[in-house]
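Many introductory courses stop at the sequence. We go one step further.
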Amino acid sequence: MTPMTARQAETEGRILIVDDDESLRREVADYLTLSGFSVRVAANGREMDLVLTEQPFDLVVLDVMMPGEGGLSICRRLSDAGGPAIIMMSAMGDEIDRILGLELGADDYVPKPCNPRELLARMRAVLRRREATPAVRSRDGMEFEFVGYSLDLLKRRLRAPSGVLVLLTSGELSLLTAFLEHPGRVLTRDQLVDFARGSDADIFDRAIDVQISRLRRKLNECDGQDLIRTFRGAGYMFNAPVIRR
């Protein structure tokens, strides 16, 4: 296989792998590099923080179980800071751990051992969602207003009526945009997955309820209104008038 130039390696995205397993870091890093990504590695949260001061990243592949600060704690602070997309990896297949990771801000969750091709597919799907939101909608209005909130898709910023900036993960942003484009309409889970995820719906279907719950909680904390209503057995509806500019 012909070695890639640095320019070619940048075309897919910049990835940071955080895992205390050296052999796994090397295996995943080599595979992703050959697949066209620019890859850095870190053995723990402290090394990760140092690498993050040197350059920005598009996505972090983050192990759950590590010495020192655990992956879930790291996930929460990266998400709270509006950082890069996150894919959690864990040898523990417990559904509770997976849901907790998603609730703390992860965009996806992959159990170990993981087929590198599956990880690659999930990474590309997450990055497409993050990049597609402003790009796909650039032909139309890029700003939404609803009950005092303002959403700027280009800047990926949601501002509450109080002026406070509400930090959203890429999944939450995709879901909110889907709701804002179809206000007052009951959307099934499948429709929401299609609107928010596009061709990657089958991969992310099981995470949709967690994402909606997290988005609803963030909106309610800022405004106190139940902007996303649940219609049992039918789906969800965005319950507010929306202006698009």
